[in-house]
């Protein structure tokens, strides 16, 4: 039997936006997932673009936090792939190794924000809020 608090938690879990993180640096992906969960969002982490695309969560994702540089399909290629498939998921890019050309391409492709690592929690949460308000 569930207590009222458990029922409320389950209901919140089902209604809170799903934030998916795709970063080949597992420690960054996991810590970002924990951070978004601590703010009350649902969060899932993926180590590659293919892993995310092969999941059942693409259609349920309210915001995608996406690394630019990854082996295989990189973040910019994933952004292009989603746009080509008419999947309009708001994207917040995070990167430790990007240049101005990458940032311009990401923003022209519709990204909400382009954050350079290390970024502040406030910058990430501001970007997520902008993404969710779209």
Concise account of the structure shown:
The protein is of the alpha/beta class and 134 residues long.
Q: Average the pLDDT over all residues and give the rounded result.
A: 90
Helix content: 40-55%
Q: What's the end-to-end separation, in Å?
A: 39 Å
Assign an overall shape: globular
CATH architecture: 3-Layer(aba) Sandwich
Total number of beta strands: 5
Radius of gyration equals 15 Å
Largest sheet: 5 strands, parallel
Number of helices: 6
Low-pLDDT stretches are: 1-13
Strand arrangement across the biggest beta sheet = 2-1-3-4-5
What number of structural domains do the residues give?
Answer: 1
Beta content comes to 15-25%
In CATH terms, the superfamily is: Response regulator
Give the SSE order as H and E letters.
HEHEHEHEHEH
CATH topology type: Rossmann fold
Structural class, please? alpha/beta
CATH class: Alpha Beta
Task: Supply database-style keywords.
single chain, alpha/beta, disordered N terminus, 6 helices, 134 residues, Rossmann fold, 5-stranded parallel beta sheet, globular
Can you offer a commentary on this structure?
- By secondary structure, the protein is of the alpha/beta class.
- It has helices spanning 4-15, 26-38, 49-53, 75-84, 100-108, 121-132; strands at 18-22, 42-46, 61-67, 91-95, 113-116.
- The chain has a single domain (16-120), classed as Rossmann fold (3-Layer(aba) Sandwich).
- The protein contains 6 helices and 5 strands.
- The chain has a 5-stranded parallel β-sheet with strand order 2-1-3-4-5, with helices on both faces.
- α4 links the parallel β3 and β4.
- The protein is globular.
């Amino acid at each position: 039997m569930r207590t009222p608090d458990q029922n409320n938690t389950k209901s919140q879990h089902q209604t809170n936006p799903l934030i998916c993180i795709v970063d080949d640096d597992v420690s960054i992906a996991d810590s970002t997932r924990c951070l978004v969960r601590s703010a009350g969002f649902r969060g899932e982490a993926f180590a590659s673009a293919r892993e995310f695309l092969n999941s059942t969560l693409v259609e349920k994702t309210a915001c995608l936090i996406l690394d630019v540089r990854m082996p295989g399909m990189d973040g910019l290629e994933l952004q292009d792939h989603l746009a080509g498939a008419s999947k309009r998921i708001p994207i917040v890019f995070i990167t430790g190794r990007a240049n101005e050309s990458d940032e311009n391409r990401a923003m022209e492709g519709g990204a909400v924000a382009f954050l350079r690592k290390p970024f502040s929690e406030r910058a990430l949460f501001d970007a997520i809020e902008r993404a969710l308000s779209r």
